[in-house]
Design a protein that fits this description.
- It is a single chain.
- This protein is an alpha+beta fold and 187 residues long.
- The protein has helices at 2-21, 47-53, 79-84, 167-186, and strands at residues 28-30, 62-66, 74-76, 93-95, 99-103, 108-114, 125-131, 134-136.
- The strands form 2 sheets. Strands 4-3-6-7-8 form a 5-stranded antiparallel β-sheet. It has a 3-stranded mixed β-sheet with strand order 1-2-5, with no helix packed on it.
- Strand 1, helix 2 (47-53) and strand 2 form a beta-alpha-beta unit.
- Helix 1 (2-21) packs antiparallel against helix 4.
Length: 187
């Protein structure tokens, strides 16, 4: 009887370890990996282009824009405003608290620039693109404007689980169930 109890405990431990592998991780990225969201320096004028190319973003991640609130802000804009650095149209989203967090709640194209006049023209802008559960980051010279003009903001609450599980989660759950069933049947 004690031997069977030990096996059951072992089974539960194995299942717990396998399910831990399926843990979903979300990250908060400090935009540009800099101390602050600001005008790029002459030594690194393409900082936001380079930064976006070296990161893979996923739904559930967030972007942290740090800046002095009295000197700057962050706005989410449409592709046309981003490409022309125009501030004539109202932004999709404006944040000006100095510690702005943009939650990525859906795949899509995201365009950000400084809310201060002249900063975008000096390179203070960021474009990321998420396809599915991953992302490819494009520099400002990347793909042209989207043909769909109904661009929705993606800032909001923590994303809810979709109807389809990520493949790794499904596989891990299947594997944990299979191992548990085999151990249960064999012992």
């Amino acid at each position: 009887m004690i031997k069977k109890c030990r096996r059951v405990v072992f089974l539960l431990a194995v299942q717990l370890l396998i399910l831990q592998l399926a843990q979903v991780s979300c990250y908060q990225y400090k935009v540009g990996d800099l101390d602050a969201w600001g005008i790029p320096t002459a030594a690194n004028p393409d900082v936001y282009i380079k930064w976006s190319k070296t990161h893979v973003f996923r739904v559930g991640d967030s972007l942290l824009f740090l800046y002095p609130p009295s000197q700057d802000s962050m706005i989410q804009v449409r592709p046309e405003a981003f490409n022309s650095c125009s501030m004539k149209d109202p932004p999709i989203l404006k944040m000006n608290d100095g510690n702005s967090v943009f939650n990525i709640t859906q795949p899509g194209e995201f365009y950000f620039m400084s809310g201060e006049e002249g900063h975008c023209q000096k390179g203070q802008k960021l474009h990321i693109s998420l396809a599915g559960d991953g992302a490819i980051a494009y520099p400002p010279e990347g793909p042209g404007p989207l043909s769909d003009t109904s661009y929705t903001p993606a800032f909001g609450s923590i994303p809810t689980a979709s109807s389809s599980s990520p493949p790794f989660l499904s596989f891990s759950t299947f594997l944990a169930s299979l191992v548990g069933s085999l151990i249960w049947v064999l012992f």
